[in-house]
Amino acid sequence: MTVTALATSATLPTEVAALRPIDSGLMERLRHEALTVPSDWVVEYGDYQNGGWHTLSLLNDTGDAQDVTIRDCPNPIATSLLTDMPGVRDLLAELGLRCMWARLARLGAGAFLWEHRDYGELADAERHRVHVPLVTNSSAYLILGGTKVHMSDGRVWRLTPTSPHGVCNRFGPDRIHLIIDCYADAAFDALNASVDTVADAVTMLPAPDVQELEEHVATATGLAELGYDGAAETTLLELFYRYALAEGQVYDLITAMYTALHRAEDAERWRVKKATMLGHS
What we know:
Blueprint: E1 16-21, H1 24-36, E2 53-60, E3 77-78, H2 80-83, H3 86-95, E4 98-107, E5 111-116, E6 127-135, E7 140-144, E8 147-149, E9 155-159, E10 165-169, E11 175-183, H4 186-192, E12 202-204, H5 210-225, H6 229-237, H7 249-260, H8 264-278
Antiparallel strand pairs: 1-9, 2-3, 2-4, 4-11, 5-10, 6-9, 6-11, 7-8, 7-10, 8-12
Helix pairs in contact: 1-3, 5-6, 5-7, 6-7, 7-8
């Protein structure tokens, strides 16, 4: 398949699933709270994004909404933000999950979370991630396994974040999700058993044509030669959202670009970044 071939609809990859719907009345309450209550959003995990991803905690081990660095927390407590969001409290109680952490995540227009794996820094335990889209748009999607997945609102979704994935919101408006990290238990098993089919949720990405891929690398190399390193790196990082690429291929392309430019320190920096983002060299 070439890059000019039309992408086709496909089934959801096994790492993501559309689960049970949410009552429309509760959904309206959740959406209203997400748009009116949060303030002082925090930018964290800067190496993983281009600056447009902001979070606030609802459940954690300190009670501070601005404490957003995820870690194991078997007995989380409510932050002050959660006390002001009764609809979200009702949903969390209804789901009944054994929460590790819960947060709001806002992805602005033009924002990217680069290809990565999660949970690599945490101790071994069976944990899962649940997404509840509160505010979204059709240009906001997840990339996983060579597919583009739009998590529609009005339902609960499950994601396996230990698989390489990335997220973007190309044109806006802001995408806001409730994200729940939880431990395995009967409540999660029951929720995960309610898998549903969502029409048009997923689209296959085209495989890259070698010549066009070379043209993207040439464009990035030209930008780097002019001193626009950030633009050069972004040109290659964004290929993950356009084509079905091998795991870590965008990082390898950046490393190879700097190697060809005889910039050994920058090449090594991106080798290290690949290991950080994906958990291997």
